[in-house]
Amino acid sequence: MSVLGSGESEKRAPLKRRYIQLLAAVFYNCNIKGFLSGSIYKGDIKGLCVPGLNCYSCPGAVGACPLGSLQSGLLSSKYKVPYYVLGTLILFGLMFGRLICGFLCPFGLLQELLYKIPGKKIKKNRITVMLTYLKYVILVIFVIVIPLVKLVPGFCKYICPAGILEGGIPLTYMDPQIRGLIGVLFSWKFIVMVVILTICVFCFRSFCRFVCPLGAIYSFFNPISFFGIRVDNDKCIHCNACVKNCKMDVKRVCDRECIQCGECIKECPVDAISYKKIKK
């Protein structure tokens, strides 16, 4: 059977996707008590990584962010490999690839909602394609090199907009003691967040496309992931409608930039695109 149904139900997959995105965001942050008390959940399951980008310090978070966990693992073990986190990332990648970006990332949902704000939009072009490589540079420098050399979680500390949005702002609002500790770093992260979110209004999923190291990691698994999009080459007429109508910087369906959202399914005139099927 199909992962998301078959036939006409696959045509409606993009509509189902919004609900799945919302459910994922709620599931990741279902610790209501944390929002009421302004405290961070530290129970047993907090050590488990959720698939998408979601700040550990969010008062509602019940799981850990894979990127934060990877940096923490590199910090705590220094030059030893954090096998648990790497194994988790590999498992998520092999199972879903960037389908996680399209369905299971709360920050991806936020970006898509911001893009719905009316205004002139920046369409994909030669420059946006070049900018997609920036996230790999950020992955190497801020997620791997800085934690190993400077012993600080580079991406979480200096860039991650989800950290300041989900963790920094709620905690400083609810805890007067934390408000008293606000300094230059908080101001910097706040500015970075505002800039990124503002760009997302005009450029579709700009953080996801150009900045996010987690998307960069999952992109390596996209062609071989168990779940995701497939193209029936026997049906395909190479009209390129899928690529032309995709808002991501894809060169073909399910390449490294494809978030496997399923929008291309309804664009294909010969029904050559579908979600991979699970054989009974």
Write structural notes for this entry.
Mean pLDDT is about 90; it is low at about 1-10. The protein has about 280 residues and is mainly alpha-helical. It has helices spanning about 10, 15-30, 30-35, 65-75, 85-95, 100-105, 105-115, 125-130, 135-150, 155-160, 160-175, 175-180, 185-200, 205-210, 215-220, 240-245; strands at about 230, 275. It has one domain. It is globular. The protein is about 55% helix and about 0% strand. It has 16 helices and two strands.
Mean pLDDT metric: 90
Order of helices and strands: HHHHHHHHHHHHHHHEHE
Tell me the strand order in the biggest sheet: 1-2
The largest sheet, given as strand count, sense and whether it forms a barrel, is: 2 strands, antiparallel
Number of strands: 2
Distance between the termini: 7 Å
Beta strand %: under 5%
Q: Please tell me what the overall shape is.
A: globular
Helix content: 40-55%
Radius of gyration: 19 Å
Count of DSSP-assigned helices: 16
